[in-house]
């Protein structure tokens, strides 16, 4: 019910400032979290491996990531389907072939696609972070079906997803300690970027608009005053009719 619902607090994200960019080291670590923890159940079908290039990975790295996956392709000349290593142009592979298979594997619950999840949920990355780290025991008198879990941030509090992250759930390549909150923060930053890949560019353009305007507006204001000064200082005298 609503009385048990918690609203996520506002966390001080390094990208929440008016002119702050996303933390690209965090995006890189967050992709690893998605790949190793989330991708077993959650698709990100609107993201392709090429999208990572220049954001979190080099072209060679993204190519190597794509090649780890076998992709069904075809038909070939003889009409047969075949598998091949993934390419940069391929989208992230889906864990299930269809929604029925996804529900069957998850006690009837459908794991949502994560491509735009941050912008699709009220509270954005604050909500996702709170949800991932907010699992707790149900309060006295609240009982849940066996396959459900108590989460005060989830609408209705009974969520089908078991707690997905914990301390040291994976090891980071850059040596960052993989605490539960660090893992949650990184995957939220990655999902924020996936939902809004234009984020950094938009803020950079905003900065340029501010800089150029701050130069042009005083110039135009001065010119306007200069032009109008002739009219503003004119004395108009009416001669009474004879």
From TrEMBL:
Q: Where in the cell is it found?
A: Mitochondrion inner membrane
Q: What keyword terms does UniProt attach to this protein?
A: Electron transport, Heme, Iron, Membrane, Metal-binding, Mitochondrion, Mitochondrion inner membrane, Respiratory chain, Transmembrane, Transmembrane helix, Transport
The free-text note explaining how the cofactor binds reads: Binds 1 heme c group covalently per subunit.
Note whether Heme occurs among the keywords. yes
GO CC annotation, single: mitochondrial inner membrane
The UniProt subunit note reads as follows: Component of the ubiquinol-cytochrome c oxidoreductase (cytochrome b-c1 complex, complex III, CIII), a multisubunit enzyme composed of 11 subunits. The complex is composed of 3 respiratory subunits cytochrome b, cytochrome c1 and Rieske protein UQCRFS1, 2 core protein subunits UQCRC1/QCR1 and UQCRC2/QCR2, and 6 low-molecular weight protein subunits UQCRH/QCR6, UQCRB/QCR7, UQCRQ/QCR8, UQCR10/QCR9, UQCR11/QCR10 and subunit 9, the cleavage product of Rieske protein UQCRFS1.
One annotated GO biological process: mitochondrial electron transport, ubiquinol to cytochrome c
What is this protein's name? Cytochrome c1, heme protein, mitochondrial
Instruction: Mention any Pfam family matching this sequence.
Output: Cytochrom_C1
Please list the cofactors this protein needs. Answer: heme c
Superkingdom of the organism of origin? Eukaryota
Q: Where does heme c bind?
A: 38, 41-42, 161
Report TM segments: 204-223
Write one Gene Ontology MF term.
Answer: metal ion binding
Q: Which family does it belong to?
A: Belongs to the cytochrome c family.
Which residue range or ranges hold the Cytochrome c domain? Answer: 25-121
Query: Gene name, please?
Result: CYC1
